Amino acid sequence: MKISPKKLFLIDGLGAFLTAFTTGVILANLEAHIGMPKNVLYPLAVIACFFAVYSFWNHLQMVPNWPMFMNIIAIANLVYCSLTLGLAIYHRATVTSLGFAYFGLEVVVVVSLAIFELKTARTNSNG
For residues 116 and 101, what is the distance between their CA atoms, to the nearest angstrom? Predict the structure, then answer.
């Protein structure tokens, strides 16, 4: 599947915005059902907001060296997933099955996107 880099930055930005909203608003209000404390969810949401701004900015700018910027967001996404999994494991005593299901699904989606971004950046930086 071929997606333009401009569209890929847009997809990443929309996904990061959705993650920020879901984590900081919806999950924070469902803390009793998810089990992840609000003081963990809010910083994760703030990080996702920064990622959204970064990706939207790159979508709008599309500079010639965009592969470098796509690599940056892809690696940041992978670090975010590692952080999310680490926090879910750290709080495993309180995180519910529903919480693990949500965070697991989020990680699968974001890691898949990050791999696609890395491949897109590599393909376009090699010629």
Answer: 23
What is residue 22's DSSP assignment? Answer: I
Rounded Cα–Cα distance for residues 3 and 105 (Å): 22
Mean pLDDT of 2-29: 97
Residue 73, CA distances (Å) to 26, 62, 87, 116, 126 in order: 24, 14, 21, 12, 19
Q: Rounded CA gap, 70 and 83, in Å? A: 20
Token reading at 104: 């697991």
Mean pLDDT, range 6-34, rounded to an integer:
98
pLDDT (tens digit per residue) in 80-123: 999 999 999 999 999 999 999 999 999 999 999 999 999 999 99
Taking alpha carbons only, the member of 14, 28, 27, 22 closest to residue 73 is: 14
